[in-house]
Amino acid sequence: MRVAFDELLQNSLIETGIHPESSDHILTLSTCTGNGYDSRMTVHAVCIDEQTTDPEKLF
What we know:
By secondary structure, this protein is of the alpha+beta class. The chain is about 20% helix and about 25% strand. The protein is extended. The termini are far apart.
């Protein structure tokens, strides 16, 4: 898994200073650029703060 994270960081267009660990929750969004399937833009997000949607715990 570390190799995959290192590759993501190496190919990143923007350096955020965030270095995910294998235990992190990661969301990946991907889209085409309008030029068919030749290139895609992906955005990866690391969950840094889990919040509940349980109504009992919101207040």
